[in-house]
Amino acid sequence: IATVAQPTDAPVPATNTPLVAVTPLASSSPATRLLIPALSLDVSVIEVGWHVVTDASGKRTTEWDIADNAAGHHINSAAPGTAGNVVISGHNNIKGKVFEAISLDVDRPTPRLTPGSDIELQTADGRRLIYRVQKVDLVPETGAPLEQRLANARYLAQTLDATLTLITCWPSFGNTHRVIVIAKLAQVL
Fold first, then answer.
1. Which residues does residue 74 pair with via DSSP β-bridges, in sequence order?
2. CA 20 to 30 Å from 152, out of 10, 20, 87, 175?
3. β-bridge partners, 76
4. Do 64 and 48 meet the contact criterion of CB atoms below 8 Å apart?
5. What's the whole-model pTM score?
6. Around Cβ 66, how many Cβ atoms within 10 Å?
7. Environment class of residue 61 by beta-carbon count within 10 Å: exposed (0-12), middle (13-18) or buried (19+)?
8. Three-state SS for 24?
9. What pairs with residue 157 in β-bridges?
């Protein structure tokens, strides 16, 4: 059974292959595919934005769009391979279930997606960017206190180094928690 991780500022060190400093790209084209070999996951990536939502009291907020049948690269996050935080989200149990394997992996007695695992992000100009997983967090979201939800939002913040953040829901039959995968750029091919 999964345990809920409290967000931490320091990433867990990679356990398999050491992370070697890689110079981030100065610019990049859009992401087109995301592959996670440890989970046999191969999914297309499209750009996503947000829309305005008005609640019953008339209060207006914004809500992220989530891609159907694809992973969604948040348009205001960093470009693939560049310095900053590339944020990609995907559904775990509806509309293509593109990140279902990530959500289900949290429940495994021995997860396959762990620090040291590689994630490949392919771009429209033919680049292959290899990111190395630093940590996988499971955090409460739906019904969580505002303080917790604000702490969760920090995963969307920009970073100084080339980071990839994957976000999906958990458990496989719901969406009360978020699975957050943090990876750092390890190789540009």
1. 48
2. 20
3. none
4. yes
5. 0.87
6. 20
7. exposed
8. coil
9. none
Per-residue pLDDT of 100-157, as tens digits, reads 999 999 999 999 999 999 999 999 999 999 999 999 999 999 999 999 999 999 999 9
Span 89-105, pLDDT tens digits: 999 999 999 999 999 99
Tell me the torsion sign for CA atoms 133, 3, 152, 32.
positive
Alpha carbon distances (Å) from 135 to 53, 132, 153: 32, 9, 16
- Helix (H) or strand (E) segment spanning residue 36: strand 31-36
Structure-block tokens of residue 144: 């969580």
For residue 111, count CB atoms less than 10 angstroms from its CB and return exposed for 0-12, middle for 13-18, buried for 19 or more.
middle
Q: Which residues contact 16 (CB under 8 A, 6 or more apart)?
A: 114, 115, 116, 117
